[in-house]
Amino acid sequence: MNEQTRALERPDGARIGYGVIRGEAQRPLLVLAHGMGSNMTRWSEFFRETTLKASWDLLRFDMRGHGRSIWRGRVGMEIWCDDLAAILDKEGYGRAVVGGNCLGANFAVHFAHRYPARSVGLALIEPMPPEAHTGLLRKLRWLAPLLRLAAGSIRVLNALGLRRRQLPILDLEALDKASREAVRQDPQAISRLYASPLFDLRYMPSAAYLQDLVELWRPVELETIAVPVLALPSSGRHFTDPALAERALRALPRVTLERIAALHWIPTEQPQQMREAIERWCEGLRERL
Is 96 helix (H, G, I), strand (E, B) or coil? Predict the structure, then answer.
């Protein structure tokens, strides 16, 4: 069963790239969103390896401002949510399980708020509730208004033609393989590869990157989410405090919580454990649909 790569043209001129694997008859749909400074190749390994292809349709997309959805205008949770809803409309899906990692996990929660009737469940990999942020991510939160102003200024310059003309697309599956090899020699290598703003900025517009960061600080109202939720937080303290993250996640009324031993990058560090947890939960959910 092969993935079909497609694009959706939005009324404002944005072009949203996505990939879908589907059966001959429509089946339950799992949508996966990527994290900050990332793109939908984050899920290439999952799409290739998962057993869910036998019983689920799968969809991944480049959030506006990332990968093949390059956009130098305004981005944010509401815009990303509306983009996904439009993709679902185009593909003929009324509802979906929406998941993601890092920023993508927070996005999934916002989607459930904005489109509750279209959300069957949520699969949150390394969710980042703002109250659990640690280190520099927590300390810089007061800069959010300044970063919004900076992003707006860059958008103006981009509109005037001052921008990088070509942005390469980062292959995260290849980077994951290189990271796993590097970690065998140096356990901290993954942090240098995945926590570098300068590295991320090679592959995406600067304004989009700043807006990603601001969106990470957006509050998420977990206690109002009525659908079943799988939450896979990490044990590491690189960006979030595990105890605070799990305390926040337990506010979800119907949460299945499974901590995974990782610094932060669960799809890179523990791909099999993550995949098996998602598969178990999704198959259990499908039996109740």
Answer: strand
Map residue 125 onto helix, strand or coil.
Answer: strand
Cα dist. 206→32, 132, 148, 209 in Å?
24, 26, 12, 5
Here the CATH number for the domain that contains residue 156 is: 3.40.50.1820
Total-model pTM: 0.97
Pair type for strands 255-257 and 119-125: unpaired
> Residue 38: what residue type?
S
Residue 88 to residue 286: CA distance in whole angstroms? 19
Domain count within the chain: 1
Residue with tokens 């405090």: 241
- What are the CA-CA distances from residue 168 to residues 26, 61, 205, 268, 272 (Å)? 34, 17, 11, 21, 28
Residue 221: partners with Cβ closer than 8 Å, 6 or more residues away = 109, 113
Give the pLDDT mean for 21-41.
Answer: 95
Q: 274 is in which domain, residue-wise?
A: 4-288
pLDDT one-digit tens code per residue, 211-254: 999 999 999 889 999 999 999 999 999 899 999 999 999 999 99
